[in-house]
Design goal:
Helix Hairpins, 205 residues, mainly alpha, 7 helices, minor pseudopilin epsh fold
């Protein structure tokens, strides 16, 4: 059997204190080094466990291990996308290309923001709010992702994702999700969103 490659915690493109005053250094550091890292560590542990089980040909609850692996890998993927979606204040504005697509689908940037944040605010329990691109309809679609269930729309490209698990904001905003969401909106990396959309559209040409 070939040597198993494992998942790795990505380095951030910014420093932990760069998101102040919207997120504190402590909040970003703990989110990255504890919460995100736990998904990476758990996924790697399960992969190693599966490898050992297959080598020894021992009995195992594959359904349980598969579910745990999917949960942790999805958590890792979503967090990686989330970090890329953030940048310090004084970021670049929404590009003309992205603005055109937003207006085509949501009428205006203001309506897009209202709908996105409302979707995120209304998510029950833990999960994510995401802007996705549908290749079949050539349109932008907003979705709620419960926990880490990214397999709901496997063909859709995630362009923008915001973590609305409580661990993403509890240190800075306690249980006030609305304050957190409005703060996050101030540090969205719209250049990344635009680049993801361009790549997604190129795939269908």
């Amino acid at each position: 059997m070939s040597t198993q490659k494992f998942f790795q915690l990505p380095e951030l493109s910014f420093r932990y204190h760069d998101m102040w005053p919207f997120l504190t250094e402590q909040q970003v550091r703990i989110h990255h080094l504890q919460h995100h890292k736990s998904y990476v560590d758990n996924a790697n542990q399960i992969l190693q466990q599966l490898q050992e089980i297959r080598k020894k040909q021992t009995k195992a609850n594959y359904q349980c291990l598969s579910q745990l692996l999917a949960f942790n890998v999805s958590g890792h993927i979503l967090h990686s996308l989330f970090w890329e979606n953030l940048e310090p204040k004084d970021h670049q504005p929404i590009s003309d290309f992205l603005n055109k697509e937003i207006k085509k689908n949501f009428i205006s940037q203001e309506k897009f923001k209202t709908e996105f944040l409302s979707l995120a605010q209304g998510l029950q329990g833990s999960g994510w709010a995401a802007l996705t691109y549908s290749p079949e309809t050539d349109s932008l679609i907003l979705i709620q992702i419960e926990k880490h269930n990214v397999n709901l729309l496997p063909e859709h490209s995630i362009l923008l994702v915001i973590d609305v698990w409580e661990h993403a904001y509890y240190l800075d905003y306690n249980q006030n999700r609305s304050y957190y969401l409005n703060a996050i909106w101030e540090i969205i990396n719209w250049k990344v969103v635009s680049e993801r959309l361009k790549k997604a559209k190129q795939k269908i040409k």
